[in-house]
Specification:
Strand content of chain A: 25-35%
Low-confidence stretches of chain A: none
Strand order of the largest sheet of chain A: 3-4-2-5
Number of strands of chain A: 6
InterPro entries (chains A, B): AsnC-type_HTH_dom, Dimeric_a/b-barrel, Tscrpt_reg_AsnC-like, Tscrpt_reg_AsnC/Lrp_C, Tscrpt_reg_HTH_AsnC-type_CS, WH-like_DNA-bd_sf, WH_DNA-bd_sf
Protein name (chains A, B): DNA-binding Lrp family transcriptional regulator
Shape of chain A: elongated
CATH topology of the largest domain in chain A: Alpha-Beta Plaits
Mean pLDDT of chain A: 93
Order of helices and strands of chain A: HHHEEHEEHEE
Number of helices of chain A: 5
GO molecular function (chains A, B): DNA binding
Distance between the termini of chain A: 25 Å
Keywords (chains A, B): DNA-binding, Transcription, Transcription regulation
Number of domains of chain A: 2
Radius of gyration of chain A: 19 Å
Oligomer: homodimer
Pfam families (chains A, B): AsnC_trans_reg (PF01037), HTH_AsnC-type (PF13404)
Amino acid sequence: MRLNDLDERIVHALAEDARRSYADIGELVGLSAPAVKRRVDRLRAEGVITGFTVRVDPAAMGWETEGFIELFCRHNTSPADIRRGLSRYPEVVSASTVTGDADAIVQVFASDMRHFERVLERIAGEAFVERTKSVLVLSPLLRRFSSGAPA
Amino acid sequence: MRLNDLDERIVHALAEDARRSYADIGELVGLSAPAVKRRVDRLRAEGVITGFTVRVDPAAMGWETEGFIELFCRHNTSPADIRRGLSRYPEVVSASTVTGDADAIVQVFASDMRHFERVLERIAGEAFVERTKSVLVLSPLLRRFSSGAPA
DNA sequence: TATGAAAACATCCAACG
DNA sequence: CGTTGGATGTTTTCATA
């Protein structure tokens, strides 16, 4: 499922502003509005574009505290187990299994330090978790694309 | 800059589908289309909503390889220096200064391992970088919200 | 200060060439 | 893929609470 240059430029335009009109995008990439719509529809059908979402200032949503939690899991813990365990936490915005010492890296948004600590303790108490190591975000420097499935 | 219940429900509706019409959202939250638009306009003006973007399957974009790079920087490196240095890499999708041993955590998408390695070497060669430590993502388990400023 | 109704305007999208 | 035109959505104006 390879994208050509036109598709990439359309996706890029949508990444910058997903509410931009098809006519605007068409002007940008040299296509008519319906042609752009047809490509966007095709990209959605193919699963390249999985949806449209809003970019939000976390602080404004009351999420003042952000951090990463490294998970060291018990033996015989599958990625699916981790996923299932973590999906119940609304504070978890992203999680991945990784190479290296830790088994997974989990990104968490919390309202404040107390909230973050409470989430950390609950995650550390999960049956499949052996120990954790966490770092707090001081300043978010860059936040670019959005990917994957909705909440 | 506190949000009331109505604002939160509007933001939530947009987070699920940013191209949903104002009339649809209005029906959902019990407002007319113009009332929803005015609130969205206000949220944008206040910086709560920073934009609208598309959710993309990274693999479909040709980004098969994902990883985190911990940055250990030279003394007197400011967050702005790191931001400036990293913003030139299109492969960098997120970066934050953090507590703990490392100074910053950088999330990178690359087309394959060779590409990832090339980016890693170039970042490690930046003047402000002393050393790096990186892990590769094995499986992305969860990907939820989008936040922050556009590219 | 915030709302809804309505009108003017823009965009979308299915049909056709 | 582009053009067309009726349907749908957006945005301004206006009156009201």
